[in-house]
UniProtKB/TrEMBL annotation:
Coiled coil: none annotated. This is PaaX family transcriptional regulator. InterPro entries: PaaX_C, WH-like_DNA-bd_sf. Signal peptide: none annotated. It comes from Acinetobacter defluvii. GO terms for biological process: DNA-templated transcription. Gene3D superfamilies: 3.30.70.2650, Winged helix-like DNA-binding domain superfamily/Winged helix DNA-binding domain. It comes from the Bacteria. Residues 173-253 form the Transcriptional repressor PaaX-like C-terminal domain. Pfam families: PaaX_C (PF08223).
Length: 262
């Protein structure tokens, strides 16, 4: 995953727990990741223009209300561990054929939102996923529309498909790749966690940030498929390791902000 000054500043402000950070702190922190002072200052200016951050005093910045919804998803990422239930072999489906496909921007946004929630397109304008999310249909509709899905999209629960379609549905996700990812990163993160306490604070900050960006993104975009489609125990091991890394990383950056970057 590429690293740029804008994304780093947003992540650092999220890690600060809502505290205001000075431009000096932002520049010093970015330097740890080899981001130049000029790039950091330009990024601050652009983020202000985009209303993602705001200046509350001369040289002092915090996240804006416009960043709160996205920030809430990241800050409360551990909630994803509690968003699934036992699979009843039923499916959730979203029908979007009435929305049209000529507006490419709207189409891309719609497909991105559905993919992020684990849906895959079975036929044009018809998206499905296992009904194992711990949400009612109304709650799911609310969540999807808050993310930007058109209110006219039709959500439904499907009790069964014919055998041929059922087989086709099972191929919509690369479950082998998901299982390999869970195992790979669980091993990598557990090894890192074993040695984290012996690392220099600056190295700990750098590595936790870079490794966290990669693995947290994977966790947030995981389709949360049920067993037997994926190894759910392996996924939970991966998620727990990510949350441990995230906790260490946030505490490390907070301490650096307080003790070394002022």
């Amino acid at each position: 995953m590429s690293l740029n000054a804008k994304s780093f500043i947003i992540d650092l402000l999220l890690a600060s727990g809502g505290q205001t950070l000075s431009i000096k702190q932002l520049v010093s922190a970015a330097h740890i990741l080899n981001i130049s002072e000029n790039n950091t200052r330009v990024a601050v200016t652009r983020l202000c223009q985009e209303e993602m951050i705001e200046s509350v005093a001369r040289g002092q910045y915090k996240l804006t209300a416009n960043a709160e919804r996205w920030g809430s998803i990241v800050i409360h990422r551990n909630h994803r561990l509690r968003r699934t239930k036992a699979w009843n072999q039923h499916y959730l489906a979203v029908l979007t054929t009435s929305l049209g496909r000529t507006d490419r921007t709207a189409l891309n946004r719609r497909e991105k939102i559905l993919k992020h929630t684990g849906f895959r397109e079975l036929e044009t304008g018809f998206f499905v996923r296992p009904d194992n999310l711990n949400l009612t249909l109304d709650e799911l509709k609310t969540e999807l529309t808050q993310q930007g899905l058109e209110n006219a999209a039709t959500l439904m629960q499907v009790a069964a498909f014919d055998p041929a379609t059922q087989t086709q549905i099972s191929t919509l996700w690369d479950t082998q790749k998901l299982n390999q990812r869970y195992e790979k990163y669980s091993v990598q993160l557990k090894q890192w966690l074993t040695h984290a306490q012996d690392m220099h604070p600056l190295n700990l900050a750098r590595e936790s940030f870079l490794l966290g960006r990669e693995t947290i993104a994977l966790m947030l975009t995981d389709p949360l498929l049920p067993s037997p489609l994926v190894d759910t125990a392996s996924r939970e091991d991966f998620f727990q390791a990510v949350l441990q890394l995230d906790h260490i990383g946030q505490e490390t950056w907070r301490k650096l902000n307080q003790d070394h970057l002022n």
